[in-house]
Amino acid sequence: MLNFLGMPAAASTHAGEIDNMMVLVHWLMAVLFIGWGAFFVFVLVRFRRGANPKANYAGAKGKIAKSTEIVVAIVEIVLLVGYAIPAWATRVKAFPSESEAVVVRVIGEQFAWNVHYPGPDGKFGRTDIKLVSADNPIGLDRADPAAKDDITTINQLNIPVDRPILVRLTTKDVIHSFGLYEMRVKQDAIPGMDTPVWFVPNVTTEDMRRKIGKPDFEYEIACSQLCGLGHFRMRGFVTVQSAADFQKWIADQEKELRAAN
Ligand code: CUA
Question: Which residues partner with 151 through β-bridges?
């Protein structure tokens, strides 16, 4: 049913709900398009000058137009109240707690996605714009005890499957938009604001490759807001892993961090 919209494969628990709504809205639009188009043609023929040499100032008296409008309004209200508002409410209200979720900061900049993990202590280290440099794009203060085990990556987000992911999103310069199409996630990143967005990925990268038959497939972070000349190349990758693989990845990053120090 979805293929006619050309949607990317779904890979999060709330994707189905959003897709259903998109399908219903498109069906409604298709019906309206055909209906209004047919009505327009009917009116052109019915009220043509040849058949109506003298204008009728009273106008048409039919009741069909009004009843059609009421039906369309009811369908729209059902879509809004029955689907859109409840789906939106879950996205913005039913946040997972920080203890059950994997919390990660994502910091946009022209033109890259910086990712910041709190490390084993679960605490994000202090950041300071004065410390921002080419080697330290998020300005992490390694002198802060909470920052010692923090992991940072550029354009690479690793997350475990089947767990709530809580992204704290911000940006260093202009407005960007964090778009994970397979997860049906899109959130603007606003300078000076820490915007939370959450989702539960439910298909690992490996499983998705098998499912769609593309062995080199990667989930992408697409910037979905025009943010400058390099907007088109502002993309990152998301690797959705099993819990064990994710732990291993974190451990490897920690090892690299210790080696670097
Ligand atoms: Cu960042 Cu477009």
Answer: 117
